[in-house]
């Protein structure tokens, strides 16, 4: 099945577990560590594909749950698949829809067979089983697809977390069996909250299924960052070295550096675009809130180290004006900048891995970046 | 004063009064007929300057009233002027602010000296005199600026319309006297509603002031299109042949064709971008409302005759999905398309003038375009 895919490990950092890799997919290579902007509904909010390309985006994520509701996965399939629909010819990853069923929809019934839930849009009754999650993702046609997992709340009892882990393993098996297309890499998702034994149990159930890549789910759901990093400390070593490792829904620039240092290769997060829409910019000297009056007459660029359109051509004063006046171009330019910032960060991390300097990179940069949550 | 400007008449259509011209400004040439997208607050909503360039935009309009309120004309001046602030290096035109004072603000007092009004944003008390209108526009630094005029409601009594005409003439004189910068073309604005005698009176007052161009104001304010066309029939011949003629705030594609046929050279209107944000597309075969369910599975482009990004790369189904899902990219792509459509229209009109075929162009095209109001 994985013939269209290969993952080459190019380098491992000398002082940390950070890796640099090259992942081949049917829609092109992804140099890792890599960050995927989130295109929930088949569009990274406010940005055109060529704008993503220009700032170095290699791969984007789209959300199965949202696309299944609107416009429907069969419509996307009939129109030639998600790549063509959204005009993105690079690699795409879709999640399984499970996370939104457990967080966004109103869950009506959950058992080993399936989840039954109500749409957050119109309240209609829908269901998601492992087989259905695969079917939808095959309709969408992403390069990388995800097993349906149970995302139990982080503060659930150990018994319930364990039930979720075992169900996730069971569902992973069913997803693998349901997969028909051979041009999509199906990843297993390790669950287990922040509990070492459960994470090990989850990985032990999934690794024998021999997925072409593994995701770490159920993190960045409200726990302190130190708990997330600790969880990665004992989870990542359970995953095979020769497959890409994807930390789902993470995170801040600090999170990316800490997770790369622990051996994670792939990330997605709404943070750069969502914060951008809310006038918050990530910069090489920390976070900037553009609505602040201090920027009203500031002629300097957002980030003098950034070469995105927002930084090369506009002043902070203009960008602030756009937000104060409620102009669309503000969210557009800040989403673009923050996306550029994240891409620059993972590129620099990759360089640091190749030169064996991740420890120094982390030390040099963490101090000057404000934590964004 | 007009040394930085020249207007060359290249051709006049054989069957109509349509003209093709070339207008030189300090920020480049404008081939006329020309249409200016509206960048009210220093940004054409949702579009970057390079996107405007790519679809052929030569000149943009910005609104003095809005910019004077936010971020303030002195701030724009201190940051290097409007061209630099908004990163548009082509010609810019600013209106005088009068139209918004009479339509948007709460007018408190109006006499020959000035208008006193309350800001529509925070209710603060402000005033606009001819001298102040020029001062603000000199701070903004557009290539073409407008005299302050009194925009009386179209249904005002003949006496009040006449008072507005005479006040507009008085203010035009004061604007001319107040102008200090020599690199901005100051246009007079002909008022007078749809009344022939008043329009002639207005032109007769303004033409001796020898402005480098003339605008026709007070139209497209609710009167039937036929009244507007009739008003142009008797107004345009009052204006000098050798200066650009600008029809303010107009209009639909049909309006543009009809007004060009009557000798108008320059237009601005929010219609392409505002309709674009509201999922309405102008196309070569008529208007399309993308929210309509008929487009849900339509693989065809919005307009097969258009080469904008929206038409070259996306299906109607995708564009509709963006609007149904509330995604920013929908308004962005449709604003871009409609802007491209308007630019193509004025380019084609220019070609028709040069080949003496405006009558045929009008006949061929009017039938298939739906009227948008």
Please describe the topology of this protein.
The structure is a homodimer of 373-residue chains.
Chain A (H helix, E strand, L loop, with lengths): L5 E7 L6 E7 L2 E5 L1 E4 L11 H6 L5 E3 L1 H6 L3 H6 L3 H5 L5 E3 L3 H6 L2 E5 L4 E4 L6 E4 L1 H11 L3 E3 L11 H21 L6 E6 L5 H11 L7 E3 L8 H11 L9 E3 L5 H9 L4 E4 L1 H7 L2 E4 L2 E4 L19 H5 L2 H9 L4 H26 L3 H9 L7
Parallel strand pairs in A: 4-14, 5-6, 10-11, 11-12, 12-13, 13-14
Antiparallel strand pairs in A: 1-2, 2-3, 7-8, 8-9, 15-16
Helix pairs in contact in A: 6-7, 7-8, 10-14, 10-15, 11-14, 13-14
Question: Features of this protein?
Answer:
homodimer, 373 residues, alpha/beta, TIM Barrel, six-stranded parallel beta sheet, 15 helices, 16 strands, globular
Strand content of chain A: 15-25%
Q: What is the CATH C-level name of chain A?
A: Alpha Beta
Terminus-to-terminus distance of chain A? 38 Å
Annotated CATH topology of chain A = TIM Barrel
The percentage helix of chain A is 25-40%
Can you walk me through this structure?
Two copies of one chain form a homodimer. Chain A is α/β, with parallel strands linked by helices and 373 residues long. Chain A has a single domain (2-269), classed as Queuine tRNA-ribosyltransferase-like (TIM Barrel). In chain A, 40% of the residues lie in helices and 18% in strands. The first copy, chain A, has helices at residues 49-54, 64-69, 73-78, 82-86, 98-103, 130-140, 158-178, 196-206, 225-235, 253-261, 271-277, 309-313, 316-324, 329-354, 358-366, and strands at 6-12, 19-25, 28-32, 34-37, 60-62, 92-94, 106-110, 115-118, 125-128, 144-146, 185-190, 214-216, 245-247, 266-269, 280-283, 286-289. In chain A, the strands form five sheets. In chain A, strands 4-14-13-12-11-10 form a six-stranded parallel β-sheet. Chain A has a three-stranded antiparallel β-sheet with strand order 1-2-3. Chain A has a three-stranded antiparallel β-sheet with strand order 7-8-9. In chain A, a hairpin with a 4-residue loop joins strand 7 (106-110) and strand 8. In chain A, helix 10 (253-261) runs parallel beside helix 14. Chain A is globular, with a radius of gyration of 20 Å. The two termini of chain A are 38 Å apart. The model of chain A has no long low-confidence stretch (mean pLDDT 95). Chains A and B meet through helix 13 and helix 14 of A and helix 13 and helix 14 of B.
């Amino acid at each position: 099945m994985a013939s269209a895919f290969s993952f080459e490990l190019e380098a491992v950092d000398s002082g940390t577990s950070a890796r640099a890799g090259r992942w081949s997919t049917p829609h092109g290579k992804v140099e890792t560590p890599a960050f995927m902007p989130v295109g929930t509904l088949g569009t990274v909010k406010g940005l055109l594909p060529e704008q993503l390309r220009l700032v170095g985006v290699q791969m984007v994520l789209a959300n199965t749950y949202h696309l299944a509701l609107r416009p429907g996965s069969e419509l996307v399939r009939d129109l030639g698949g998600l790549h063509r629909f959204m005009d993105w010819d690079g690699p795409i990853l879709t999640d399984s829809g499970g996370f939104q069923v457990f967080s966004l929809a109103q869950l009506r019934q959950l058992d080993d067979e399936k989840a039954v839930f109500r749409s957050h849009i119109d309240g209609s009754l829908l269901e998601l089983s492992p087989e259905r999650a695969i079917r939808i993702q095959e309709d969408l046609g992403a390069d990388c697809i995800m097993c349906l997992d149970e995302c139990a709340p982080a503060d659930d009892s150990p018994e319930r977390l364990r039930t979720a882990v075992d169900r996730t393993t069971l569902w992973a098996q069913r997803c693998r069996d349901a997969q028909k297309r051979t041009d999509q890499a199906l990843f297993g998702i390790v669950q287990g909250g922040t509990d070492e034994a459960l994470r090990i149990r989850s990985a032990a159930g999934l690794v024998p299924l021999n997925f072409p890549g593994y995701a770490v789910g159920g993190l960045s759901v409200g726990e302190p960052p130190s708990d997330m990093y600790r969880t990665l400390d004992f989870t990542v070593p359970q995953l095979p070295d020769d497959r890409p490792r994807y930390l789902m829904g993470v995170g801040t620039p600090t999170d990316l550096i800490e997770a790369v240092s622990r051996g994670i290769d792939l990330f997605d997060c709404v943070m750069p675009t969502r914060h951008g829409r809310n006038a918050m910019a990530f910069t090489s000297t920390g976070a900037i809130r553009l609505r602040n009056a201090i920027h009203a007459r500031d002629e300097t660029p957002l980030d003098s180290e950034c070469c995105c359109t927002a930084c090369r051509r506009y002043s902070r004063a203009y960008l602030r004006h756009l937000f104060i006046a409620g102009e669309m171009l503000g969210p557009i330019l800040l989403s673009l900048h923050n996306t550029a910032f994240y891409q620059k960060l993972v590129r620099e991390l990759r360089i640091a891995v190749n030169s064996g300097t991740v420890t120094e990179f982390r030390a040099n940069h963490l101090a000057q970046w404000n934590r964004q949550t």
